[in-house]
């Protein structure tokens, strides 16, 4: 809820040329490729948004499919693709019900997206990833541990050029955080599913074996999995 406004307000996930988006690719890209050692193979960029990580991997020689359930994101990704003469195949689709054959991908990357999913939804996503990934493939998931971050996220914290965090509330079961963003002329709320590293790992254990993990910055993790 509120994601339309969120993605409109912040360029971090929508404007590939912005310093915020470039910063994410520059930080995470080199860490991802440490675990994608062949520089070739088929990659699914799951919940790809406007495709910045898809292009990064294509430029290194990977054959990339980007999937997102938001048609506006995919339209924007296709516009970027056209500008760069990219061959990435961008498709609208649901991460919980992937339109791909079993054992189709060498790698699935899933970046900055788990807060969109409830526990039962993320379970479906993991199940689908396990189905579409090759037995010797790797699943690379990158996320921010909201359980760690939220107590350190202060109201009045300035985000980007003009917004600040006005209010943070969590539901009684502490599964959903509602963050109210405000600027001089705008305000909106976004509901994030609260995922901590422990929860992600417990769920992933049903389908994958952990191969590696890296802490990236204060509260974010890259975890590399093999299908069971
Ligand atoms: C914060 S963005 C991250 C996009 C991209 N991975 C990146 O790092 O730039 C999260 C993305 O998840 C997508 N998303 C949310 N629910 C989804 C679903 N059920 N299936 C596919 N994509 C989904 C949203 O549309 C959004 O583009």
Explain this structure to me?
This protein has 228 residues and is an alpha/beta fold. The chain folds into two domains: 10-145 and 195-227, Rossmann fold (3-Layer(aba) Sandwich); 148-191, no CATH class. The chain is built from seven helices and eleven strands. The strands form two sheets. Strands 3-2-1-4-5-11-10 form a seven-stranded mixed β-sheet. A four-stranded antiparallel β-sheet has the order 6-7-8-9, with helices on one face. Helix 2 (19-34) crosses helix 3. The longest helix has 16 residues, at 19-34. The protein is globular and about 45 Å long. The model has no long low-confidence stretch (mean pLDDT 95). The chain binds S-adenosylmethionine (SAM). Residues 13, 47-49, 52-53, 68-70, 73, 94-96, 111-113, 116 line the site of S-adenosylmethionine.
């Amino acid at each position: 809820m509120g994601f339309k406004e969120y993605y409109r307000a912040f360029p971090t996930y929508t404007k590939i040329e912005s310093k915020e988006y470039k910063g994410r690719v520059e930080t995470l890209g080199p860490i991802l490729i440490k675990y994608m050692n062949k520089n070739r193979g088929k990659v699914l960029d799951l919940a790809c948004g406007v495709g910045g990580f898809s292009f990064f991997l294509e430029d290194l020689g990977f054959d990339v499919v980007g999937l997102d359930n938001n048609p506006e994101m995919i339209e924007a990704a296709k516009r970027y693709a056209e500008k760069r003469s990219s061959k990435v195949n961008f498709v609208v689709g649901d991460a919980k019900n992937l339109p791909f054959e079993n054992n189709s991908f060498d790698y699935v990357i899933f970046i900055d997206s788990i807060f969109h999913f409830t526990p039962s939804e993320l379970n479906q996503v993991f199940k689908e990833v396990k189905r579409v990934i090759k037995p010797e493939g790797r699943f690379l998931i990158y996320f921010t541990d909201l359980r760690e971050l939220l107590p350190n996220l202060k109201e009045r914290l300035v985000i980007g050029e003009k917004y600040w965090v006005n209010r943070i509330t969590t539901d009684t079961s502490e599964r959903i955080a509602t963050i109210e963003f405000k600027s001089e002329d705008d305000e909106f709320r976004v509901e994030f599913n609260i995922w901590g590293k422990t929860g992600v790992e417990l769920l992933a254990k049903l389908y994958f074996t952990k191969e590696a993990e890296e802490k990236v910055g204060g509260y974010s993790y890259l975890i590399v999995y093999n299908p069971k």
